[in-house]
Amino acid sequence: MSRAARIGILGGTFDPVHIGHLRSALEVAELLELDELRLIPSARPPHRETPSSSAEHRLAMVRLAVEAVVPLAADDRELARARPSYTIETLESLRAELGEQAQLFLLVGWDAFCGLPTWHRWTELLDHCHILVLQRPDANSDAPEALRNLLAARNVADPLTLCGAAGQISFVWQTPLAVSATQIRQLLANGRSARFLVPDAVLAYIHAQGLYRATN
Ligand code: ATP
Q1: Which domains does the chain have, with CATH numbers?
Q2: HSE-up of 64 (CA within 13 Å, CB side)?
Q3: What is the pTM of this model?
């Protein structure tokens, strides 16, 4: 019998996607021996600060960034909806597409993980996926009270031993590259180069489309 597919999920605004996202995703994919790791750009309320690029541009940049980078992939399901998606809805949609056997791994940073109890229908998340918490090796933080029982029941020390389609939590210790999309937008708005912070194909797209330029 063939083994179940192992699929990772990384959501974000990706405005723009950068080497921090890509290195982190690739390292997790290799560590966890994933068949595919999907970057899923999120829809966003239109009133967020400018300059920022449209959903179509953000998706196009993610597509360019992952092109021919096995096992990274772009997934447009959140942009196809009329409103921003809750993570639980994205997971339900992925589960419907991939079937009950697939092992789903949701990547979240430590800060996002700590906010989990505020997420829509958060207690159902582990019905659909495992959660991989990305944490800095030098971090020394305690989980909030609301998550202690969950961690005690679901935490698995070695992420490679997560088993089944969903339901467990594990930590991946990695040092993020010191890059943010905010920094890249600021560089470009100031007429500075973003070379080596985003893939060359993404940079070419940014310039060709005139993204992130100062408007005055
Ligand atoms: P912004 O600066 O606009 O807030 P960002 O660079 O943090 O954006 P997001 O699209 O918000 O990028 O991030 C998507 C996901 O990638 C989040 O889970 C975030 O924690 C993670 N991430 C962001 N920057 C890095 C990085 N340098 N290394 C690893 N992961 C990152």
Answers
A1: 6-177 (3.40.50.620)
A2: 20
A3: 0.95
